[in-house]
Amino acid sequence: MTTIEDRFRLPCGVSLKNRIAKAAMTEHQADADLLPNDRHVTLYKRWAEGGAGLLITGNVIVDRRHLEHPGNIAISSKPGDPTLKWFRALAQAMQTGGCRAIAQLSHAGRQTPKVVNPAPLAPSGIKVALPGEQFGQPRSMTSAQIDDMMGRFVQAAHVCSEAGFNGVQIHAAHGYLLSSFISPLTNKRSDRYGGRLENRARPLLHICERIRAELPEDFILSVKLNSSDFQKGGLTTEESLQIIEWLEDRGVDLLEISGGSYEQPAMMDLEGMEKRYEEGKAESTKKREAYFLEFARAVRERSAIPLMVTGGFRTAEGMNEALNTDACDVIGLARPLCVMPDAPHKIIDGEIAELPSYDKTLALGPGLFGPRSPIKFLKALNGFAIMAFFYENIDRLANDLEPQTEMGLLGAFLKGQRRMAKKARNLN
Ligand SMILES: Cc1cc2nc3c(=O)[nH]c(=O)nc-3n(C[C@H](O)[C@H](O)[C@H](O)COP(=O)(O)O)c2cc1C
């Protein structure tokens, strides 16, 4: 019987001390130099002391013109660069207590906010279809630009290795650049990077091949991939399963499955949130736990790749059941760790049976104003305002403050917007 407290050995030989991983959460803590700083160190030391076996950073961007937020960490250093000391400090903080440290490498592509880049690079010139004009008109990449981008991912992995990280996770989910190459909705190319699935997956597969070939054998190579785009005409689950087989062939050590994009944020299950809000704490809470588990079981039938499932895990029972029925190997947790950074310790020690999630909170209310609102603007505003609650608490943890569980979400949203505008001004 496998439980959350059991060790797990990855194919590259590195062991995790337990089965709980902190999934990537973008921190928005970097200053205009886009480097890790003391706040990152404080934040990750707290999370490492919180008991997870693995910590994955939020988006670490491989091209500073394509940040997901002006407060992202970006890697533009070369191995041997003096700025590496900050990456080293971060990796060390993450490894407190024998925890393993992975940097999530990303390029925001068409989801780069306009304040960072009004004309970001993307597979095709298809703009993010969200109200509010937050994103600019993307430019279709030339093949030289694609080569340059793939090289940046590999270069960033070298930098992370030199800085002492145990590995990297290539972010190929949630609509960012690599995921937008994979999705037929956002990739309309007719060259060797468009059309057939193997063409759309080519940048991701090429990056994985090079990292596996060039980095040390015990360097963890992880990928975060969408199980589906949850949009008509988008990536299908069958296509995702095929990509997973290819990733297994390329020696990926840990596949994390998620889903969706800014336009359809399935990874947050906001609609499930509204249902739970309406039903109170009914039996359905348990049924909705871990919304990508069904897909995980389909992966198991096709591939032996080590599997991490993230999204919705909230009870010890739900996590142990997923491990024990061999649906996955590692449990990813995100939002609960913003309000309780030592939740892994508490749930492994049996001090608590259920994690605090605060994900039943709605920004504006249910119905017309809720996450299922037919009015696109209100639906989007709800999503961004709910996220603001978690960003605000990450900011509190990074500043060595205690989390705050009661806050006006619209106020938090506006505060976040002001912080983003200020950081964007400092960037330029
Ligand atoms: C504040 C916040 C920031 C996030 N940033 C990232 C990110 O940088 N990269 C990523 O892959 N996922 C990111 N996510 C998604 C989480 O990794 C995770 O997939 C999602 O929150 C579902 O897991 P949960 O139900 O345990 O929160 C973020 C989520 C939150 C709440």
UniProtKB/TrEMBL annotation:
Family matches, as InterPro entries = Aldolase_TIM, NADH_flavin_oxidoreductase, OxRdtase_FMN_N
The coiled-coil regions, if any, are: none
Mind listing the GO molecular function terms for this protein? Answer: FMN binding; oxidoreductase activity
Name the keywords, alphabetized.
Flavoprotein, Oxidoreductase
NADH:flavin oxidoreductase/NADH oxidase N-terminal domain residues: 14-348
Superkingdom of this protein's organism: Bacteria
Q: Which Gene3D superfamilies match?
A: Aldolase class I (3.20.20.70)
Which CDD domains does its entry note? OYE_like_2_FMN (cd04733)
Give the matching Pfam families.
Oxidored_FMN
Task: Indicate what this protein is called per its UniProt record.
Answer: NADH:flavin oxidoreductase/NADH oxidase family protein
Where does this protein come from, organism-wise? Parvularcula mediterranea
Q: Output the lineage of the source organism.
A: Bacteria, Pseudomonadati, Pseudomonadota, Alphaproteobacteria, Parvularculales
